[in-house]
Amino acid sequence: MAKSTHEPVAELRQVTKMFGSKKAVNQVSFTIEKGSITAILGPNGAGKSTAISMLLGLKDVSEGEVLLFGGSPQDLRVREKIGAMLQEVSVMDGLRTREIINFIRGYYPNPLSLEEIADLSGLTTEELNKWAVKMSGGQKRKLSFALAIAGNPELLFFDEPTVGLDTTARRQFWKTVRQLADQGKTILFTTHYLQEADDMADRILLFHQGQVTADGTPEDIKAKLTRRSISFIVDADHEQVKKLLHEVPGVTDVYEQGGRLNAVTDDTDTALAALFRAGLAVHDVRIDQGSLDEAFDQLTMEQGEAV
Amino acid sequence: MTTWKLITLQCKMELLRMVRNPYYIFWSLAMPILFYFIFTRVVNTGADDAGQWQAHYLMSMASFSVMGTAIMSLGIRLVQERVQGWAVYMRVTPLPGSVYFFGKMFVQTVMHLLCIIVIFVAGYLINGVSLTIGQWLLSGLWILIASVPFLAIGTLIGSMKRVDTASGVSNGIYLGLAITGGMWFPIEAMPSIMQTIGKWMPSYHFGGGAWSIVRGEAPGLNNFLVLAGYLAVFMILSTYIRKKQQAD
After folding, report:
1. ipTM
2. Is residue A107 part of a domain?
3. Ranges for the ABC-2 type transporter transmembrane domain (chain B) (predicted)?
């Protein structure tokens, strides 16, 4: 694991982003420390890419403040220190891969050499000589990665970097990212795969409906995700029972599934006590210790339906 | 990085791309030259002074060509680069947006110059159009400089979301401006309502400056004023749109 030095390189302060009346990102604050590998984990539509876009200065914030290296992401001196691989694959017509990389290298004061870039991105000599527009999807991803590292940046952004990559390419990608991290680079990436975040990151920011719902080491996050829950059948107005449960301390979520009410809580005893105290006709009570994948799928599914 | 080095780099990149994509150049030259040939050699337009008509129509076609390059190739290119995600990527790099834009304007100017030279040469070869050195230079310079409002239209087209829309709209604007502004046929030959409309078109004043020069006169003050007015409106519009897109 790379060592972080507590020196902040990127910071969101109370940032909100509105699209019309919808809050894509809602009051989010976090600080990224130098040398860390951070994953922004969350389902599609959770606001991950919007957060990255604001950090990169591609989208204005509706409220709050964004700082990169203590300055604005729009500052050219700041941009000399960052590299990004965005979701849209960037190519330019009329140029060969090698030429594009060399032009981009020219924008930075201390770029990597073409050899180093080719080596890290896995671009072959044949691919370097190809017209950029004629490359396959996988090759364009390699080019996109090559452009992200071309300027030898201190801070690297990867927005959903492995979507559409096969297993081999995915493994290769993370191996290279690990290599960059070992050189002391700070890395921030988004993903909706828990496995990737767990394997790669030393810190996970869990995004849910535009908010950071958890922030910690992969171990912390896993513990949080695998919370215990109770489920039961009740012959009463579900909305009222839900309301009651929401008021119980420790209950973080209440939802209905297959005619059963479920309540997620650390303290199942208190929740049960509250139900019985209310004199509700509760039966077929179950207490579950959900698996990690289930818990994450649950989160993802809910979000998927909401979008 | 020094700005000068970035500018050189960017201009070099855009030039390389222009030279390798002769498609745009071909279309901005082929149609005007074909038109020129037809309306000065094939169709008898019954002009009183054939030499005057040949010089006048040469200016029409040179302006027509440059206007097309400014509106179509700039606009469609900008949309393409945004749709492909390239323009967004550029905003993450330390290249100032102004230098990126300058590179585009530089290569447009080179293309415009190329269009003017080739069409002037075609006029000389097809009809032996003879103007004084001063007239050749001044009319060429006028077309080069007065094309700026049309570059602003190209930039506006460039803010569109889809290449298809941009392509359709820019074609429509291009041909509409050419016809109403008297580039294809002099507006004096049109119904009076069309003449009234035409006299307010930027294309009429764009061609108008060059027509004056080959008649041995200076471009009128109204040519300058109308073009400057349109430029101001297009620039305000385009700034407004860019601000709005950034906020989304």
Report:
1. 0.84
2. yes
3. 12-208
Spell out which residues of chain A touch residue B96, defining contact as CB-CB under 8 Å: 76
Contact criterion met (CB < 8 Å) for B92 and A82 = yes
Query: Which chain A residues touch B92 with a CB distance below 8 Å?
Result: 56-58, 79, 82-84, 86
Chain B nearest C-alpha distance from A108 (Å):
7
Torsions phi, psi of A161, nearest 5? Answer: -70, -25
Shared-domain flag, residues A174 and A269: no
Which of B20, B21, B93 lies closest to A104 in CB terms? Answer: B93
Predicted local confidence at residue A306, as pLDDT: 41
Q: How many domains does chain A have?
A: 2
- Going from the C-alpha of A50 to that of each of A61, A304, B139, the distances in angstroms are 10, 17, 51
**A112 touches B at CB < 8 Å:** no
A96-109 residue pLDDT tens = 999 999 999 999 99
Own/partner contacts of A259-262, CB < 8 Å, gap of 24 or more, are A259/A233, A260/A231, A260/A232, A260/A233, A260/A284, A261/A231, A261/A232, A261/A233, A261/A234, A262/A229, A262/A230, A262/A231
Interface of A with B in 163-192 (CB under 8 A): none
pLDDT value at residue B230: 96
- In this predicted model, what pLDDT tens digit does every residue of B83-111 receive, in sequence order? 888 888 999 999 998 999 999 999 999 99
Q: Would the CB atoms of A94 and B9 count as touching at under 8 Å?
A: no
DSSP symbol at A26: E
Q: Inform me whether the pLDDT recorded for A305 exceeds 50.
A: no
Q: Domain of A147?
A: 8-223
